[in-house]
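Throughout our pipeline, every protein is held as a single compact record rather than as scattered files. Nothing more is needed to write down the fold, since each code stands for a local backbone conformation. For reference, a complete record is included directly beneath this paragraph.
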Amino acid sequence: MGLYHNRIVVKVGTSTLTNEIGKSDLRTFDRLARTLSDIQNMGFEVILVSSGAIAVATNKLNMKTKPTSMWMKQAAAAVGQCSIMFLYDKFFGDYDKTIAQILLNADDIEQEEKKDNLINTFNSLLEMGVIPVVNENDSVSYPEIESEERLFGDNDMLSAVVAVLCKAKMLIILSDINGFYDSDPRLHPDAKLIERIEKIDESVYSLAGGAGSRRGTGGMKTKLQAAGLATSNGVDVIVTNGKKPDSLYEAIKGNRVGTLFVGKASQ
């Protein structure tokens, strides 16, 4: 069976969900919930992949810096995940939407029986009009926190895995910049946004910088890896600015927004 053309996955990162001093950006939570609720009302099935648990917990627990030890990260993830889901439930509830939490480990994807059960869960939730909110199960899955080359990366790869698993037509990765540039726009004011990329090769990877903002751990490299997986399975990927959730409307209309990585089946 092919892709579901009315099914989209949206990934939101820590830098989008928190403000410059590391606290929850409630305005962004509200705008994101409102926009995704409205898009669902337009007939789309929506899956949200959300980072931010450890960063939110750092603030909630009055920590001066993000935890560095593995066990403290896992404990913080457990606290932060509750806080994030509380906020999502509150804001999506304001727009008469029901959400569900799905926490994943690598085993859930790699073992066929678990993967089939997971697909069935996603399909059942979407059929009922529920918006699944997905994150790594950091509280028990230490490899995803600890390893430099994690299976899912900073939820960018997780969002691509979910998009492929659920046969979504489009993956939209919300970043802290407007898209993929020919150089880092935070360092080079004359950097140019690349609006469309047909093929992710070494020349494209050479343009990607290091890690992202100080509040998140992902960067353009992880987004390229995610886009590579998704596009190789026919999924269109858009990287755009998470502080401008209204751009999601343009994305689902097929209008130019951010950077489009073209799914192979769409070329």
Observations:
- The longest strand covers residues 4-12.
- The first helix runs from residue 14 to 17.
- The radius of gyration is 17 Å.
- The beta strands are 4-12, 45-50, 99-104, 131-136, 168-175, 196-197, 236-241, 259-261.
